[in-house]
From TrEMBL:
PROSITE patterns: ACT, D_2_HYDROXYACID_DH_1, D_2_HYDROXYACID_DH_2, D_2_HYDROXYACID_DH_3
Keywords, ordered alphabetically: Amino-acid biosynthesis, NAD, Oxidoreductase, Serine biosynthesis
Protein name stated in the entry: D-3-phosphoglycerate dehydrogenase
Homology family: Belongs to the D-isomer specific 2-hydroxyacid dehydrogenase family.
Catalysis: reaction(s): (2R)-3-phosphoglycerate + NAD(+) = 3-phosphooxypyruvate + NADH + H(+); (R)-2-hydroxyglutarate + NAD(+) = 2-oxoglutarate + NADH + H(+)
Lineage of origin: Bacteria, Pseudomonadati, Pseudomonadota, Gammaproteobacteria, Cellvibrionales
UniProt function note: Catalyzes the reversible oxidation of 3-phospho-D-glycerate to 3-phosphonooxypyruvate, the first step of the phosphorylated L-serine biosynthesis pathway. Also catalyzes the reversible oxidation of 2-hydroxyglutarate to 2-oxoglutarate.
Amino acid sequence: MTPQTSLQKDKIRILLLEGVHQSAVDLLASRGYTNVEYLKTSLPEDQLIEKISNVHFIGIRSRTQLTRKVLESARKLVAIGCFCIGTNQVDLKAATELGIAVFNAPYSNTRSVAELIIAETILTLRGIPAKNTACHRGGWMKSAAGAFEARGKTLGIIGYGAIGSQVSVLAEALGMRVIFYDVVTKLPLGNAVQISSLDELLGEADVVSLHVPELPSTKMMMGPKQIARMKPGAILLNASRGTVVDIEALAEALKSGHLAGAAIDVFPVEPRSNDDEFVSPLRGIDNALLTPHIGGSTMEAQENIGIEVAEKLAYYSDNGTTTSSVNFPEVALPGHVGAHRLLHIHRNVPGVLSAINQVFSENNINISAQFLQTNETLGYVVIDVDAEYSDLALEKLKNIPGTLRCRVLF
Ligand SMILES: NC(=O)c1ccc[n+]([C@@H]2O[C@H](COP(=O)([O-])OP(=O)(O)OC[C@H]3O[C@@H](n4cnc5c(N)ncnc54)[C@H](O)[C@@H]3O)[C@@H](O)[C@H]2O)c1
Ligand SMILES: O=C(O)CC[C@@H](O)C(=O)O
């Protein structure tokens, strides 16, 4: 039997955008959530605001921009599922301040991206993008000039996290020498070596591959100066985020021949759907291998992501557990058989906790279990009580100053 929540499950509205995998819909259905609107595209802000004002959960990929303005109109929203790794498309500060939990799938497409990077390393070192284009145009570029083996070349990885370190292992298996730059000291895998400055890495690597998140500190981290610092004839790979590379400067470096090639999967501006035109200064540059943000788009990854994120949303809805949330204090909760569970999300300011406890002491409500976790913005308190008291407690808790969201699970 599926547990009852504060709303009947068929009243809990879920909006899934950007064609998330069917596995998400199936998983939600298996947990009793069938009130799902499924769209293949992202939505422009005005349409998003209209739709989000009425839903309890939303699932997106990388294109949907959940700005503060959008989130402020999401009065009923309980949680956001990012069916991907990156969460830069969500204003996380706003989501946190509004008490909306955000989940993602931090590892489900790691391998897919790493495999693509290895393929691109080999293809760009051999000059395949230009040769392929020539063949399609009736040309025949049979030549060894500018074509190299990966073996023995130096791969410079920027951002040695889940993807960067996976690329490192695969590249070493090809016989490449791996160096990496990361703002955090990382345990190097295999024979990889951490380099202390970006500048030094750029001066040494034959192939540079970017695997950093989109952050203020990574915006345009590959600008004209950094691109000029790369070795003549080097190759730049970017499957991280489009804002990390100055795309105009890259186009110039490819046209001038300073860089021998590039493989770019992510762009500062990406079409909203497959029906929209892709516009980029890299179009028409034959030694640039361009892909439509499909680093993580494999059947395996998408199916796993669908299950993982939908499971996190359903679990948070049913039980209150926030394990691996991107922005919420993490609480792994047991079941609450025989009790009603109150979930209280509040601003982490002095006085809220004592006000919560006062509700129970003043009204003589026995607490059978209580869980508390905070981060610097939020406090998350979970209280299990006898069924007969949950309505009264919910009403009182909702009125405590500092309360952001409050719900009950029956
Ligand atoms: N193209 C795609 O389809 C695709 C798929 C998955 C992920 N991504 C992108 O790849 C990014 C990386 O994914 P991940 O799972 O490896 O993330 P991760 O968090 O595991 O690793 C990121 C690494 O970058 C480092 N870093 C942060 N700022 C840095 C800086 N200024 N200089 C150097 N290093 C810095 C971090 O310390 C961390 O080690 C994601 O954030 C996402 O934007 C793209
Ligand atoms: O599927 C997507 O749209 C995004 C994929 C990738 O960039 C990620 O962050 O996981």
